[in-house]
Amino acid sequence: MKLKIALMTSILGLCAQAHADWFLRGTQNNWGTTQMVAGGTNTVQVTSVVFSSAGSIKFDRFGDWQENYGVGGRNGTNIPVAAGTWNIKFFTDTKNWNISPATASSSSVASSVAASSSSVAISSVKSSSSVSSSSVAQTPYHIRGTFNAWAEGTLMARVGTSNVYESCINFTGGDANGSPRFKVDPNGGWGDAIPANDYVVSQGWVKVSFNSTSKDISVQQNLPANCAVASSSTSSAISSSASSQSSTPAHTFNKLNLRQDSNSWAAEPMALVADHIWQGQTHTLRSAANQFKFDVNGDWSLNFGDNTPTDGIADQNGANILVNGCYNFDCTSVRVLFNDNTREYALCYDSEHHNDSGTTSLCAQ
Question: How is the chain split among helix, strand and coil, in percent rounded to 5?
């Protein structure tokens, strides 16, 4: 019996020790260390955490920033938290979290945003009286992709009071269906995820920006760890003021090249001529045919063609795309356009004797 008691005491002691080395840090405690306590199996928590205004948090393993977790996993970006009083849990096995209201008054609306491996629960407790529009929680935008097995729960952070939401994601690789990519999913329901086709990015740290009004997505790729935002005791909180808008058209890729057999498959830079629209020229000669592909980085690491049957939507690592010969008339200038948001492309011929091909509405650019 003594041995059994001693063993149970030892196990309990180990469990307590396992939970005792997690800390909650954020704007609510000036990025200090609030020790988290056991809240269940593989769970630590802090209850009744007061945010007098909207802020952000991270979970710190030993209180020294050496191992911390946020949006995107280890060393990820800050997790946004709305103003209110919250119970905050962290799951030490999956590294996901749950943020739920500590109290629910009959005269107010309580909103819970719970980021877990399976769902994000948004619950509202309505009073018998009408609810003012100012008390309704803002739409949470989830970023889902190959980096998190397409699960909901990774929320984008709002930039100040603007309509722009951001996330910093480390894309370590793709999946069985292709290279690293993602979608933005309002409310985590998948029915209205943006864009229709997966947004393809390069492997590595990527900063994703989403405009909730225009639905435009832009990315910055090949960034330093944490998108050059350091995790420190002074925090890496996103600035409350929105950055000034650039006159450069919105774009997914920082560059795009056209490669074709008429030029020995050399990488020829394409021009960004409108939001997400890149333009290049083929070198098709009279009575000749030409083939081409799109190459993002100029090293073939991320390239697009179109597998048969061709449908005007480029496929990653797809087959060469054919430019039909012009035969008895001159069409040496054939514009090639590519939408880096939808992967639609078009061949725009300069002759009435040859129909445009691909998504020909692009030829209006």
Answer: 10, 40, 50
How far apart CA 62 and CA 184 sit, in angstroms, is: 33
Cis previous bond, 195, omega within 30 = yes
SS3 (DSSP) at 10: helix
Q: Are 139 and 122 in contact (CB under 8 A)?
A: no
Distance CA 224, CA 204 (A): 8
User: How far does CA 165 lie from the centroid of its chain?
Assistant: 10
pLDDT digits over 128-138, tens only?
A: 333 333 333 45
The 10s digit of each residue's pLDDT in 144-156 is 999 988 887 788 8
What separation in angstroms does the CA of 152 have from each of 79, 146, 155, 191, 193?
14, 12, 8, 13, 11
- Cβ 157 vs Cβ 238: under 8 Å: yes
Q: Please check whether residue 43 is in contact with residue 92, taking contact to mean a CB–CB distance below 8 angstroms.
A: yes
> What tokens does 17 get?
């020790």
Residue 139 Cα to chain centre, angstroms: 16
Contact (CB, 8 A) for 147 and 170 = yes
> How much is the pTM?
0.37
Q: What angle do CA 81, 82, 84 make, to 5 degrees?
A: 115
| pLDDT level of residue 3 (50, 70, 90 thresholds) | low
Tokens of 52: 């007098």
Q: Residue 28: CB partners within 8 Å, gap ≥ 6?
A: 49, 50, 51, 55, 57, 81
> What letter would DSSP give residue 228?
G
Strand pairing report for 303-305 and 315-316: antiparallel
Neighbours of 15 (CB within 10 A): 12
Contact 285, 311 (CB under 8 A): no
Q: Name the residue with tokens 């049957």.
A: 309
DSSP annotation of 313: B
Cα–Cα distance, 197 to 295 (Å, whole number): 18
